[in-house]
Structures are given as C-alpha cells and as structure tokens.
Amino acid sequence: MIKGILKNKILWLFFAAALSTYALIADFSIYIGEESDIAFKQSIILRFLEQLRGSVIGKGNILTLLTVALISLYGRIDTYAQCRNRKFVILAFLLSFCTILYYPYSIQGSICLMYSSRFQIVKSLIFLCGYSILFYYGIIALYQFIMDSRKKTICKHKGYWRCVSILSLLWLPHLLVKLPAAFCGDTVSQIWQALGLETYNAHHPLFMTWILKICLWIGQSAFSSNRAGAVIYFLIQAVLLIFIFSYTIYYLEMKGISKFNRNIIWLIYAFCPFIVGYIGVILKDVLYSAFFLLFIIFCVQYLEDKEYEIQWKTLVGLTVSGIFTVLMRNNGKEVIYPTLFVIAFITIWKNRKVPRQCIKAILVFTLPVVCATLISKGLVCYYSIVPGSIAEALSLPFQQTARTVYEHGEEILVEEQEAIDVVLGYDSLAERYNPLLSDPVKFMYNPEVGKDELLSYAQVWLKHLVRYPRTYIDATLHQNYPLFCILQDNYIFYYSSTVTYKEELLINEYKLIEQIEALFVSFYELAFDIPVIGIFSRASFYSLLLLILTFFILCDRDYKFLIPLLPMWMTIGISILGPAIMRHPRYSFPIIYSLPFFFGYYVLRKKNT
Q1: Cα–Cα distance measured from residue 379 to residue 210, given in angstroms and rounded to the nearest whole number
Q2: What is the pTM of this model?
C-alpha cells in the first residue's frame, strides 16, 4: 500500500501534505476523552483514530486549506526541482527532530514525553515524519534556488558610500529612539566598574570596559555629563556597525550578486529585530558580532585566491578584525584562534616552497594572538584584576549535575554528595536548578577548591553520566533546544531607560521618547509573527540555515567553504556549553550578522562554478 502511494504522485502529494498539515496544526499531547465502558472496549485502531480526531477537533477548515496549499506547493517543487540528493532526507529528519523538541520541553520539561505511551510514540513519529517532509521539500527548493541563481540578473555596482547612505537612513529611526543608549545588566556592571563604583573583574571583556571608561571620562570632562559619555560610545558603535554592514553589501556587489539575493540581505538588515533592535544597545555582543562579521569577510577574501595565498590586504584585515573580535568578548579567542590556525596551516601546506607565503601564514596567526594577549594582560596588570573562575567553562556539567540531584537526589550515595557539596553546595542544589539557566548553579561554585576536589567531582559526574544518561540528555537539550527549534520564540529587547539603578549618573527620562520607543519594541516583537519577515527574525532560523549550508558543502565536497563556517560552528559550541540560550539570543548574534553575507557569497561562488 505504501509503495503504491509513493509511486502515485497525486496520492503521495496528498499523503505528504496531510502529514505535514497534521504536524503543524495538531496538539502534541495525548487527547484525553470522556471515559466510558464502550470507549474502554474499543479496539486499538478505533482508540488511535479517536486520538487523531481529538488532537485536531475544531480545526477542520484550517486543516483543509493548509493541506490544499501544501499539495500545490509540494507539487510545484516536485516539478521545479531537478537537483535532488538522498542525503537530504537525513538532514530533513535531523531538522525535524530539532523542531519537535519544542513540544516535550515546553509541555513537560523532559524528552520522555515523546515516548511516554504507545499512542505518544505513534504521535511523535507522525510529527517527526510530517516536519521531515516539510523540511525535505524546503531543502530541495533551497538547493535548486542556489543552482538557478546562475540565471539571475546581476545587480549594478553602486559604490560603498551609497550603501552607507542607504543603511544610515534605514537605521536612523531605530538609533534615535534609543538615545542616549539602551543597556542590559552586564553593561550596567561594566559602567559601574568604569565609574569606579564597582571593583574590576574578569567576568566582562576588560577592553570594552576600558573604552567605556574613556568615553565616560570625555563626557564628564567636556560636557560634565556621564550621559554624554554614553552617547559618545553609542555613536562610535553605530558608525562602526554602519560601515561594516555596508561593506558586506558592497563586497557582494563587487563580486556580482544578483538583485534578488541582494534585496533579501537588505530586507534582513532593515527588518531583523536582532539587528535594528540592538544597534542602539550598548552590549558587548553587538560590536563583537560586527567585528566577527568583518573577520568572516576577510576569511571569504582569503578563499578568493585559488592558490590559497595570503595577500597583504587579507593579512591586515584578518589581523585587525581578529584582534578586536578577541578583545570584545572573553571567549572570542576560542573562536578566532582555531580559524587563524587553520588558515595558516593550509597556506603553509599549499605554498610550502614559497617562503614569503609561509612568513605571512605565521604572521596571520601570531600577530592577533600576540597583540590581543598583550593588550588583555596589560589591562589585567594595570587594574590588578583577579583571573576569571573555571566555573564559566563548566556551566553545562554543573547543570547536568544539578538536574541529576533534582531528579534522583534520594539515590545519590553519601560519598558522591560530599564530592558535589565541596564544589557546588549540595543541600540547595536541587532548589537552585533552573532548566533554562545555569547561573543559579554556577554562582555557588567554590573558587577555593583544589585539583583533587575537582577530580573527585569529575569522577562522580562520569558515574552519573553512565547511571542517568537520560537526565544528562534532558539537562543539555532543555537548556539548548531554543538554539535550533524554530517553533520557540526567543527574544528580549532593552529600553533606553533600563538603567534605573543609579539613574542620575546616566539617564534622564523623556516620556515622549519612551512612548515612541515602546512602539518600536512592539514592532520588533510583532516581526516574529509577520509572514516571511517572521522567518528572518528568528535566531534559530540562522542556526538551521548554518546546518543546511554545511550539509550542502559536505555533499558537494566544496570543503574550502568550511573555513568561514568554522568560527560560526565554534560559536554554536560555545553557546551550548554556556549558561543559557532562552532569553539570551545575543549569543547567536555572530551567526545572525554573518550568515546572510556568507549565503550571498556561497550562491555567488556556485553561480561562477
């Protein structure tokens, strides 16, 4: 029967559209109807049909309309798409699994909801298949779009300053409503450190704190106002963002991007809430992500040389952008240094008989490392800053331990409790556990523990991993599933009046500006539900697109394209190991800022080949 459906195109389209529609519309939880003797005696098939009906009751019209629309869409893609790859099915199932994680963790907080009963297993499989079909058709449509971009009309090169002017006009309203600047809690702490109201620490990037200190000093000296100093930093950040983002369009226009693809990138720059909603926010992740984007551009420029030679312009660009990326965030070095090492290694391997290129390869790695290290160490010594705690790197293991104590506290042995207690404090660990945020657990880390105590804790962690694997999986996925789950809204926006702790130092309230700003924030939040724009507004969309493009590159064996993607995947890894994803979309900013540019470049290269 199934083979017959697959061979008959009309039946297959109806079957595929019906599965996708059910996955999009139906309730994931098991339907609980009224109990009766008749219902109890029904066959399992009738009970299963009752479950299907109960999940979509009252949604018949929507089901019909969406099924018809998907039949038409799938039929068009079947006719239109010539480029297919069986491996796309694997990718579609992976994306589907990431998507349906929304249901077990938002409803019950555990993956066990997916297999809690026979009916639930069947329903999970239906959802998995429905979304897989939807993603599969989306993947082959995207791949065909990339192939057909060879026929697209090339846009005319209009010059760098024209791009700067257009982007400035597009962003100006979003900048004006944020004056004098918006802040988050981390930035507030940096400002108090810069003003001497808090002790300097290594939790935040010291270089940014130092720049804030200079801006605040200029504002106080020239205008007798710390608020003016905040505006100075605000303007510096805005100008840098405009110049860097404009250069991405300019670079792609020089290389011959099509009008359609260029307009999509402009659409993202003009409407993506995580771009326009944050250009006026003083936040370490904003400038860090902008320099990250600049670094990706020069990685792409490196790929332009067929002999993998480093030109002087590329050397300077990678060095400068690499230094500032490392300085603007504490974990920047974990992203930049491995990428520079790969570039240096490839250059030396491909040009080992060319001494000049070998020297440039050594310089492209050593210069950013040496310069960034000297600046960081110099500021640490000048301000006598105590190095950061190792707890930052152990957020995920601590979170896994906390969930184990939360779920299996009565089963944990006394000696294991003691090993955990020395490091994290055992008695309140279960109460402090927050599945979406590891900070409450991490903040109780004992900084005075020695290597022996950490080794004992590591042994307990390994024992619990073997004993409670599902708990570890739940702890990891529950905290990180919003990174790839496109069904989960994950956003937060900051107002220019956020800094109310010591408002007299920075902010004077203007009611009219606050009211206008509230309208802009409402638009940012609405953007997540607007058709088309809503897709480009979600941080998880860019993570999924990164996965899809990586899969395309591997299937086509265009391995050189993996070099610009390496820092993005390093960012994903750091985010997973970090303290939170939910309500912290800023950890995805490097990918959100850089992926539209890389996608445009990737389409260009496929077009040229």
Answers
A1: 8
A2: 0.94
